[in-house]
Write a sequence for this structure.
């Protein structure tokens, strides 16, 4: 054939074919996505500090291990309340003249997804400690230490944030460990990462490939322990362990111990459930961090909360009265009433 | 006859010795007390076992003894014949000499067995009878298995066993002695016969001659020395010493290539090898960080910064430079013309190398493009790279335009297209007009996969379409399959980029297109693999004799498995387990390393000795090959297993940290495999050095001396 002996024709055809397909599969969909998606009404643009933090996030290559996408798969439920949609990323535009847009969706999940980290882990103390040395809060973590985001001072300036690093991780550092501006910016960025609620009326995409059987722990009257199909230890590991640790003892000066805790040992689970669902700042004066409403943030069902409560009540030498899912449900229901009544008053 | 008498005695005593234990053995199963029962059973079983063992030994000895004493019943003639046949040449000679010297010897004599033996045998009989009598007297069931009785039985057993052993030893002596006398007698007999009987003597002489016959080793070749009148034998090797490694064929003779072009190509390949060593040292280090995350706390060496340094360095440094360098040879050779401009080749070389240097430093300093994989270099850096590509592309195109052949060989289709496409890909990937929001992700999917498939894979296929038939000395199996694979690759590969973002928020239809494209990729992959394997057909025996072909065959096999694995990963049902896990890392190493790097090494080891006339040590090429192959298998297989388990753990809703803990051993295996790979690159770098700047070979020296000779006046003294 003529085309195979004429380099002009051959290479022009090949190039045009490729460019045509490129338009079809890359440029046109990209353009249409860019033009047809606006940020969700509830979304808040990053502040200046948070933007700085995002730049640190980009510079350190965090995206190599951390994704920011909740796929519409059942297993991604732990990372967000709903699957991500195009509009979630509409806020991202070109970083500056040198650098491209950074949606930071990632392609590797060596570490946890960060789409909702601001809700899952709103404690700055935790983040700073974790950045200084991840193994100080998560023993099995393989994340790098970001020690260079911190400085050591004998006498910190007023207003500077001092990190209470456990002795094992100080590595002969004698002074006070102070978070740099970069570290604070990075933490501000991480705390800003929250899934935005879809506006009313917009259909929420569903999670695919879910388990066909409903959670079996929902049978009324049965305590939500491992027997009923819910693994309290696993739920605890997912939702609570990062702060309160696997041994339940927390970290001194940062996260309170659950072992021999008054709240956990109390026969009535009301306070415990309330803290899980609504957060807690009662011991902030003692230097402990503010606990986020983990249960609400992570969309825990009453059966799951009961499993966690019972795990805490039966582990590490604790031996307290078990609760049932129904009791938890009742306690959660009473919040609404309480708020409603206060509103009426 | 006396011996038979002994034998009878021995057999009887042996049977008697066994009988008490037979009774015990019969009784034991009836016993109820389980603990005692077990111990008793064990003791009895062991004793019976040893006694049986000894019995077998004794019986065997007795049998031998019997054979040695019994007379030969066959005819004398036959026996004599057999006896002569059983002798070796030396013994025959002695006999012959003996007859010739007519000497005689005294009669043989059978020694009598000593008195001791008789006594012992009798004692043995008595003892066993006594033992039997005792057990029979006390033989109540419960008494017999009571501990005291068991101890006593054991005490009896000990001397019994000792006696049996002693009898056996004596018997063996006896047997040896008897045998010796028999042979002596037979030999004397024979010697006498030989002396007296001429027929037997002749038989003897004949047999000796037959044994002494030897081949001259010239039966087949004749007496004329071989001569290679037409110069057909080359590379005739002499084996002077034992070899540990099988000797492979030498490389083809040095080509008469333009020295300037050779120098340019060596610059490309040399810098590529440098980037390989540096890039994989970094890879090795960050692989170790999975096992030892606190290896250092230095910002420039942190995992997040070094990972893109590693990937980009082996992509744009090692693979790209090696490909372009080899391309300079292939494009001009298959066009049967010279490269249009060597100078522009150098410009391209400098630009690409400076892009890698600048890019690596800026990434380590924390300046990157925004996190898209393989797109971490900022646009000024990637601009340098693209400029280098464009300069070489123009150079290639002009060379193809200058070609002396009518048709364009298929290698040039692949190579030129790859160069055009990577330019398009870089431009599309870096133009910001459509990259806000999710646009960036869609372009990212396109970019990262096209860079792999339309650049590295396409270019490498072009190289292999030239070098593989060259090295096999056979035409490519099917030109048409090559053409089919070419167009199918463009059609399907361009579509599949977004399969890196399945289930994400990019449009569902685009994800489906990517999956369909991934399935379509089976067409070019099957076509290409078939083409290469069919080219190998009939040439498989050459693999064992070549140090380059193993690289090709591994590259081709990984091309098939790696690419097909890519298709398998793209299905929604498998992607949901494997995506985001270490399986992806295993896949990218299986392909970028198993396919691309192996093919490049194959081409380099084929080409460079032809250009420089210097070959690497075959043993070291072998070391490179095996360490790289075993290393990449150690690297990928554990990661695939671990990745799958991690994905399954995620689908089961296990806590995230469980997946991290689960991966620890697999990450260790990855570090081990990675170390092997890295070590192989050091060997490769050394081989490159030897091929490029190694000592002058003998043939080079010869050439030089001959050149001097031709320049010397004929009448001058040498």
């Amino acid at each position: 054939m003529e085309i195979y002996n004429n380099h002009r024709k051959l290479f022009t055809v090949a190039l045009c074919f490729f460019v045509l397909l490129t338009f079809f599969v890359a440029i046109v969909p990209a353009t249409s996505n860019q033009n047809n998606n606006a940020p969700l009404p509830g979304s808040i643009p990053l502040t200046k500090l948070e933007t700085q933090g995002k730049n640190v996030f980009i510079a350190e290559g965090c995206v190599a291990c951390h994704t920011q996408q909740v796929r519409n798969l059942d297993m991604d439920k732990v990372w967000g309340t709903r699957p991500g949609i195009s509009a979630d990323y509409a806020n991202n535009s070109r970083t500056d003249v040198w650098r491209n847009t950074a949606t930071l969706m990632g392609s590797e999940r060596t570490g946890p997804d960060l789409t909702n980290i601001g809700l899952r882990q709103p404690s700055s103390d935790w983040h700073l400690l974790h950045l200084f040395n991840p193994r100080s809060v998560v023993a099995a973590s393989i994340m790098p230490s970001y020690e260079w985001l911190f400085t050591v001072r004998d006498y910190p300036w007023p207003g500077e944030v001092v990190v209470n690093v456990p002795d094992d991780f100080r590595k002969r550092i004698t002074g006070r460990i102070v978070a740099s501006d970069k570290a604070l910016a990075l933490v501000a960025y991480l705390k800003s990462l929250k899934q935005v609620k879809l506006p009313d009326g917009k259909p929420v995409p569903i999670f695919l490939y879910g388990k066909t059987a409903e959670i079996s722990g929902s049978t009324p009257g049965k305590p939500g322990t491992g027997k009923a199909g819910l693994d309290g230890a696993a739920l605890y590991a997912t939702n609570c362990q990062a702060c309160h640790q696997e041994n339940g003892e927390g970290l001194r000066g940062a996260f309170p111990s659950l072992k021999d805790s008054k709240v956990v040992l109390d026969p009535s689970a009301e306070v415990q459930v309330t803290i899980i669902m609504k957060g807690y700042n009662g011991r902030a004066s003692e230097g402990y961090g503010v606990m986020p409403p983990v249960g609400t943030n992570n969309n825990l069902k009453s059966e799951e909360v009961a499993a966690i409560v019972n795990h805490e009540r039966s582990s590490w030498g604790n031996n307290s009265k078990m609760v049932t899912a129904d009791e938890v449900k009742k306690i959660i229901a009473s919040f609404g009433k309480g708020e409603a009544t206060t509103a009426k008053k | 006859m006396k011996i038979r008498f002994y034998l009878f005695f021995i057999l009887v005593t042996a049977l008697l010795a066994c009988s008490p234990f037979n009774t015990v053995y019969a009784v034991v199963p009836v016993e109820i007390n389980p603990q005692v029962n077990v111990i008793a059973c064990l003791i009895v079983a062991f004793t019976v076992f040893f006694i049986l063992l000894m019995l077998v030994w004794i019986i065997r000895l007795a049998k031998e003894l019997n054979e040695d004493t019994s007379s030969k019943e066959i005819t004398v003639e036959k026996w004599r014949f057999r006896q002569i046949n059983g002798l070796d040449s030396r013994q025959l000679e002695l006999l012959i000499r003996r007859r010739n010297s007519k000497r005689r010897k005294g009669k043989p004599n059978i020694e009598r067995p000593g008195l001791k033996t008789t006594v012992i045998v009798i004692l043995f009989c008595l003892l066993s009878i006594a033992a039997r009598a005792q057990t029979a007297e006390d033989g109540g069931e419960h008494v017999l298995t009571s501990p005291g009785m068991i101890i006593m039985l054991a005490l009896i057993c000990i001397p019994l066993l000792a006696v049996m052993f002693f009898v056996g030893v004596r018997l063996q002596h006896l047997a040896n002695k008897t045998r010796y006398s028999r042979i002596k007698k037979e030999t004397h007999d024979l010697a006498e016969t030989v002396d007296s009987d001429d027929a037997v003597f002749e038989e003897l002489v004949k047999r000796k001659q037959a044994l002494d016959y030897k081949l001259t080793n010239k039966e087949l070749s004749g007496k004329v020395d071989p001569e290679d009148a037409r110069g057909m034998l080359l590379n005739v090797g002499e084996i002077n010493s034992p070899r540990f490694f099988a000797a492979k064929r030498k490389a083809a003779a040095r080509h008469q290539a333009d020295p300037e072009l050779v120098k340019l190509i060596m610059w490309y390949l040399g810098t590529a090898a440098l980037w390989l060593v540096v890039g994989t040292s970094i890879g090795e280090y960050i692989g170790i960080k999975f096992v030892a995350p606190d290896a250092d706390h230095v910002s420039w060496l942190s995992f997040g910064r070094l990972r893109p340094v590693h990937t980009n360095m082996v992509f744009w440094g090692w693979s790209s430079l090696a490909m372009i360098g080899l391309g300079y040879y292939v494009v001009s050779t298959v066009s049967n013309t010279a490269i249009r401009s060597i100078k522009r080749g150098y410009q391209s070389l400098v630009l690409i190398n400076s892009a890698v240097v600048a890019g690596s430093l800026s990434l380590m300093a924390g300046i990157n493009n925004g996190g898209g994989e393989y797109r971490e270099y900022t646009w000024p850096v990637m601009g340098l790279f693209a400029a280098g590509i464009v300069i070489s592309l123009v150079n290639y195109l002009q060379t193809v335009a200058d070609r002396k052949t009518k048709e364009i060989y298929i290698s040039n289709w692949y190579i030129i297209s790859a160069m055009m496409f990577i330019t398009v890909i870089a431009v599309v990937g870096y133009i910001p007009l459509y990259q806000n929001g999710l646009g960036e992700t869609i372009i990212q999917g396109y970019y990262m996969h096209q860079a792999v498939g339309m650049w590295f894979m396409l270019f490498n296929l072009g190289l292999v379409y030239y070098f593989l038939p060259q090295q096999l000395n056979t035409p490519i199996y099917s030109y048409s399959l090559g053409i089919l694979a070419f167009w199918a690759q463009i059609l399907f590969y361009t579509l599949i980029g977004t399969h890196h973002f399945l289930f994400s928020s990019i449009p569902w239809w685009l994800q489906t297109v990517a999956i369909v494209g991934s399935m379509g990729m089976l067409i070019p992959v099957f076509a290409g693999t078939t083409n290469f394997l069919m080219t190998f057909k009939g040439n498989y025996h050459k693999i064992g004799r070549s140090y380059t072909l193993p690289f090709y065959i591994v590259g081709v096999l990984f091309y098939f498995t790696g690419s097909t694995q890519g298709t398998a990963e793209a299905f929604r049902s498998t992607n949901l387990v494997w995506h985001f896990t270490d399986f992806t890392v295993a896949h990218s190493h299986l392909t970028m390393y198993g396919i691309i790097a192996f093919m490049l090494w194959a081409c380099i080891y084929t080409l460079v000795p032809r250009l420089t006339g210097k070959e690497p040590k075959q043993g070291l090429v072998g070391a490179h090959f095996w360490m790289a192959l075993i290393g990449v298998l150690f690297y990928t297989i554990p990661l695939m297993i671990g990745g799958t388990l991690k994905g399954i753990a995620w689908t089961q809703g296990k806590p995230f940290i469980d997946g991290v803990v689960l991966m620890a051993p697999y990450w260790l295996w990855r570090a081990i495999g990675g170390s092997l790979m890295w070590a192989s690159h050091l060997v490769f770098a050394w081989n490159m050095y030897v091929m490029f700047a190694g000592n002058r070979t003998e043939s080079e020296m010869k050439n030089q001396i001959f050149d001097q000779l031709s320049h010397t006046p004929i009448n001058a003294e040498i």
Observations:
- Confidence is low (pLDDT under 50) at residues 20-32, 103-114, 133-140 of chain B.
- Chain B has two domains: 2-212, 259-573.
